[in-house]
Design brief:
The protein has 119 residues and is mainly alpha-helical. It has five helices and no strands. InterPro entries: KDZ.
Amino acid sequence: PSDYLCSHCPVCFGGKSDFTEGVIVCIDACFTQKHNKQPRNPKHTHPKSVFVSPEEVDTWRNFVEEVRPRRSSPAKYTPETEEDGFEGMMKVPKSVLDICQDSFTAADCNREKASTQFL
């Protein structure tokens, strides 16, 4: 705990701590902290709170983008040489069914797509 908490409530925050980290980063997904920094709101922040400037965030974002390994681009669908037609009585082209099957197989490779032999 911080010195501030220890000095204000030794019963709760007294004693030794196993916590050895020097910095705690909180990501505010719903922007509550940013909202609380608006002038119309009373001050609700801890006196030792530090907000990183947008410029510094951009600097680090650029750094991370430079050192992060590049992702390989997803494979693009290339239609086969056979003519695109319809399978059985279905009114959907085979190319669409193939794309659907590929995504279905990726989700659960142990299942087979529905049979069209009963149409």
